[in-house]
Input
Amino acid sequence: MKYALKLLPIVYKDLQKAKKWYTTINADLGEDFKNKINQEFEYINQYPKQYQKKHLDIRQGFVSRFPYTIYYIIEENKKTILIIGVLAQKQSFEKIAKRM
Output
């Protein structure tokens, strides 16, 4: 069954901040980051239960080539995958826990 993919508003800020940082290094790198994030969103949408739960119902997917983690929850009753954060792996999980 296909799920709808929904991002919390704060996730857009997470993504803008990360893409901006990579773009300051190299414009192509910023665009590559965006593409890898979108690829991982598609993978999570296709195989939402592939990744294990980290804490309670929060799952985490990893972005290839970039040290970023996508945190999400599967809302079975709504058939929705809720993306609650996209953070650098060095950032504390507490930032995600506070969003719940």
